[in-house]
Amino acid sequence: MKSLIIYRSVHKGNTEKIAKVIAEELISDIVSVSELNNFDVSSYDLIGFGSGIYMANFNGFVISVIDKLQGFNGKKVFIFSTSGSPKSFFNSFDKRIKKKIKENNGILVGEFNCQGFDAFGPFKLVGGINKGRPNDLDIENTRKFARKLKEAN
Description:
This protein is an alpha/beta fold. It has a single domain (3-152), classed as Rossmann fold. The protein has helices spanning 14-26, 60-68, 95-103, 136-152; strands at residues 3-8, 29-32, 46-54, 57-58, 76-83, 107-115. Strands 1, 2, 3, 4, 5 and 6 form a six-stranded mixed sheet that branches. A hairpin with a 2-residue loop joins strand 3 and strand 4. Helix 1 packs across helix 4 (136-152) and helix 2 packs parallel to helix 3 (95-103). The termini are close together.
C-alpha cells in the first residue's frame, strides 16, 4: 500500500509530530502543504490530511488543496488533527474537510484527533493549555491508529 500524508503545522509543531509518527508506521511519503508542488496523487492508495484546529476548523490550506489534487477520485482518505480541546458533539471541527473529501469523491476510512499544546488567543494569557501534549500516550495512540489503517487497507 502506497500512502501519502499532507499536513499543515503552524504554531507549536503538534500536527507535524503526529504526521511523522503516522508516516513512520505507514512508511508513507509526507509533505507539508506549503511544500506540495506535485498535485498528482494517482499513484497513492491512501492519502492522509492533517492539521491543527484553528477557530474550530481544519486549516483552510489543507481543505483547499483537496480540490487541486489530480487523481483523487475514489481514493481512500484519512484525517488527523491536533487541538486545544477535544472533538465533541458541540465541537465537531471536521465537518468542512469531510464535506470537501466527499465532494471530490474521496472515501473516508479513518480519523484521529489528539490534544496538543495550545497557546493561541486567550490561552496565551494563561501560558497555554495542554502543556507537554502530544505526550507519550498520544504518540502511542497515534501508532495504534496508523496500525489499524495499515491492517484495514
